[in-house]
Amino acid sequence: MDENAAGKAEEVLRLSGITKRFGKLTANNAISLTLRRGEVVALLGENGAGKTTLMNILFGHYTADEGDIEVFGERLAPGDPRAALNAGVGMVHQHFTLAEQMSVLDNIALGTQSIWRPFLDRRAARERISKLAADYGLAVDPDRQISDLSVGERQRVEILKALYRDARILILDEPTAVLTPMEVEALFNTLKKLVADGLSVIFISHKLHEVMAVCDRVVVLRSGTVAGARQIGETDTHDLAQLMVGSELPQDDVSPAIPGKVLFALEKASTKAEGGAGLDAITLELRAGEITGLAGISGNGQAALAAAIAGTLPLTSGSIRIHGETMSGWSPRKALANKLGRIPEDRHATGMIGDMSVAENVISEAYPTRRFSRFGIIDWNAAAAFAREIIADYDVKCPSENARVRLLSGGNMQKLILGRALDGDPDVILASQPTRGLDIGAVSYVHRKLIEARDRGAAILLISEDLDEIQSLSDRIVVMSEGRLSAPSLRGERSQRELGILMAGHGMDQGPAGDTIHAA
Amino acid sequence: MRLEPRPNPSLARTLGFTALAIAGAVIFSSILVMLAGANPFNVFSLVIKGAAGTQFALLETLTRATPLIFTGLAVAVAFRARLWNIGAEAQLYIGAVMTVVLGTGAITIPSFGLIPIIMVAAMLAGALVLLGPAILKTRFGVDEVVTTLLLNFIVILFVSLLLEGPLKDPMGLGWPQSKRIIAEAKLPRIITGKRLHYGFVLAIVSAGIVWFIMKKTVLGYEMRAVGHNAEAARFAGIPVNRVIAKTALISGGLAALAGFSEVAGLKGNLTLDLSPGYGYTGIVVAMLAMLNPLGVVLAAIFVAGIFVGADAMSRSANVPSYIAQVMVASALLTMVTAMMLMRYRIRWK
């Protein structure tokens, strides 16, 4: 884009001095941001930096404690979700908001018609959608049902939905997290066409190379404040990374691993599809004193792998070996009995029972043992003592062990899960997305605990979509794509680019066989 | 308007909101009473007098509360584990059928042996009636609301078939009723000459046992965990399907005890009007009690009191006794609202 033109272009969105506090926590502190016609501005920051809070304020889900929002020069009424839509701001959320059982056409047109005209003018709607799709390269068949679409196609429907409502400002929240590299490229082409037509885009991300590839300007948030703003031409990924994490890049000071024998292994394991692809005859070995990182784009079989190891998804073929012993009828109970600690991907849905107390939650795995029950009667004193122990050891912020878990923050819930999973020093640890959605402090806490466990000799599988996390923690890295695994590589052996190519599904052919060679 | 979760509700808040809920229900019913052209103070004092004003009234209320305690417990246990048992009515009738099958002379041994045998048989039969829908739910994902509800009609028609056929009393002048149970099968009366029987004591004891199971035992813990978040329970290693099956057995057994206690304690034989919907009213009782087993006892007495009191009131105040249904229904609505307010705080903007 021509720099002069960008400089002069009118301002379409201005956030000034936005401050939002949640109790003691200041999620947004005097954040100011402007967006001009025809530009893509990246909002960059780690999880917990305040990006989502800021956008929720713009969309009226939260009301700012201080500060103003102007859209096209007019002040936006605070706390009114309709106001932003009517002012021409459209948002594509990370988790899509589409009606699964309805067609693309119905999803896009839903809610745009006056209730006094109950019959949708389908022809006009279809024509408009086709034109928008053709103009911006958003190919999708308007008559297909949403449930039949791929993730990339659903995202296109979301963008079309916003454009159909005459959005002039488009906000994309972590749009690439769920896409394959080819879909990412298509998305970037669409964005270029949109801004060429005078739309403006806010691109929320924590991936530096994407920001460099598609944005004109970048605003970096760190713990609720603007840490800096740059023109893309005047910065590089190193500079942005420093802004993002603080003055110094934290040296994830990971000592070299001293790998021991194989404690856990999957052999030619296959499963049904679960939350994306199922497993396709994968072989994986976890060694004592080593963190194995599993990289991959979301939905490529990570959920199935985690569920298979955790014992909630049965294998359709293949076998599980733990401590050298082949297991039959693998289940959560068997996993626990064989000293396998599990950190699930979704704390709210699978990790914790929100409406039960801290004490009730921390014993949910060990309650049948003599430590917490005798003759079918639960020893609540022992449970409370265990809960207090975890609260103290893991520095969990909660009123008491009787508090309902629902009232705790994500980071504190994760600490409870860590405390429960790491209790009794498990030999094998499954950590599935253990830091997703946590603030920086909690992230490094979780990392420290995992490294501690490794150093005392546990075999750890770390599943993460965050390639930086994988690379900094893992002693050995495997890449998953469409339910298959790549050959493993040692720390630093493959570049981020090479891993990216594997994540896209290229060069997976040496998969299981390569693994076995390494195991020898 | 937004709902924010509150920390654990204190006992004081729980009681306070319960009182508010009752007050709300009273005000709402009063409006209807006034619309019916009567004085609400008069009507309510007649209801209270009719429910608890005399020894006779009080005993009648407790007698009426007995089956409601059993069905209320059955529903509370099942709902706690998110097993939506709408079929307490069917389980009640099956319990009653077992009582007359075994209690009309098939076994003749003294009471202290016969009554436990009948009880166990009735509970087993009721438990099996609910086990079917529970297995369909866990195995095939069949909605138990539909299966348990429809089983009510199937079972009641089945009972009707039995009463016209194999169980029909040959001395019954053609009426569809069973033979009377023998003296050894009868639950004794608590006070000679009054209707209140030992079924009531059995109900109170059952409530205590259920409370203990839910609060203290591994099974109760598993049931609550499954009810609050089955996915997390499964992940933690709790055998979810087996817990649901056990819940079904307990719930069905409790509901069957209602049928046993009505036949063995009160009616003496089985007819098709044994239960005026005790199974369904059990849902109301359980909800009013917020699924707390001890609360079920109070809620059952409250609901029974309103029905008994309203019967007495309608005779003297010329307000239809249907007002009892309205009072119970409005109490349920205000109670559900109060339950939400106990757990959430409303924020206006």
UniProtKB/TrEMBL annotation, chain A:
The keyword Protein transport does not apply. Keywords: ATP-binding, Cell membrane, Membrane, Nucleotide-binding, Repeat, Sugar transport, Translocase, Transport. It comes from Pseudohoeflea suaedae. This is ABC transporter ATP-binding protein. GO terms for cellular component: plasma membrane. It comes from the Bacteria. Coiled coil: none annotated. Signal peptide: none annotated. Belongs to the ABC transporter superfamily. Residues 13-248, 264-507 form the ABC transporter domain. It is found in: Cell membrane. One of its GO terms (molecular function) is ATP binding. Its main location: membrane. It is a peripheral membrane protein. PROSITE patterns: ABC_TRANSPORTER_1, ABC_TRANSPORTER_2. It holds the Pfam family ABC_tran. SUPFAM superfamilies: P-loop containing nucleoside triphosphate hydrolases.
From TrEMBL, chain B:
This is ABC transporter permease. It is found in: Cell membrane. The chain crosses the membrane at residues 12-36, 56-79, 91-109, 115-136, 145-163, 196-214, 277-310, 322-342. Its main location: membrane. The keyword GTP-binding does not apply. Keywords: Cell membrane, Membrane, Transmembrane, Transmembrane helix. It is a multi-pass membrane protein. The keyword Transmembrane helix applies. GO terms for cellular component: plasma membrane. It comes from the Bacteria. GO terms for molecular function: transmembrane transporter activity. InterPro entries: ABC_transp_permease.
